[in-house]
Amino acid sequence: MITIIGAGPAGLAMAAELTRRNRPYRLIERGRVGEAWHHHYDRLRLHTLKHVSGLPGFPMPSHYPDFPSRAQFLEYLHQYAQHFDLRIEEGIELRRADIDGDRWRLDTSCGEADASVLVMATGIWSAPVRPRLPGEERFAGLILHSRDYRNPHIFRGQRVLVVGAGNSGAEIAVDLAGHGVETAIVVRSGVAFVPRPRSAAGMRLAAWLLRTLPPWLGARLLRRRNFQHLGLPLPPGSPLFHYPVVGYELPQAVARRRVAVYPGVAQIESGSVVFQDGRRAPFDAIILATGYRPALDPVAHLVTCDASGRPVVDRYWRARRHPTLVCIGYTYPTTEGWLQALGRVVRAAAHGIATQADTTLHDRRTAGALR
Q: Which CATH number among 3.20.20.80, 3.40.1190.20, 3.50.50.60, 3.90.1150.10 corresponds to the domain 136-288?
């Protein structure tokens, strides 16, 4: 039995692909369908057009706006599961998985189980990266991770510092500033901005070109606006390796003096922050938009990760050390949307599972014939 862990977009898409191939599976989810999407901040909308963000085999509703909201995408995930009649066991957590010969032994909150193939599709959103800031123990105000941010209401009348200028940090800073909160953002190594896409066909063509062209040529085709004059310089290196912030709302807010920009944090004091350029400013709260890591704790002892913390996999998304361990949804492309690439990912993963199963069956029949 193939066991899928996680009923978010990657897990649901994998289950649908296995259904299409008539491969039996078990799908377990420690919370609810799309659990992470129940907890994202209220302002969140998809950064990619709905026409390229639907999961394989079932497009988003035509009445959805071009960039669906968090609530709309969550509704769509439930519709997707119903459309394919996916069997989902909610409220079951995988605590640990171990390989025993050619089987997986699974320790779950509902007891022991086994599997022939284990597909990890747990995403990143439940594993925030929470760095320690120098002197943070002296800070008198609130420090929270962006995962715990919902909306600006509790911050009215306060001075808030957002640490990190990725998509979440940029959107939260704009959200706060748009509701009258005195807002600043820390930008350490630069940030690349891209405009919001307007054409689904253009997005597909661009993604194909950037996957196909030699890297040096792809890098030349990627032109990014440089907002260095606003304290938002481009990061160093090739633009092919920059994960971009979608939309120009943050540069616009900085230009209108609604958001202040600072370099890295040097020291936290009781009611203020000292920055690496020597400036000091008072703050009442700090929001850490410092990213996430793959939520792979149940198999962490079996997975080899690269320098960025992503699992090392082959072209079928199989872990290098254990070919019956499949890890999907942990790599975020820099030149196309994560959801846009997901269909290609699950097709490759399902093909790898089928190939591995057929090879194993052939080997067993051959061994039996030789006895």
A: 3.50.50.60
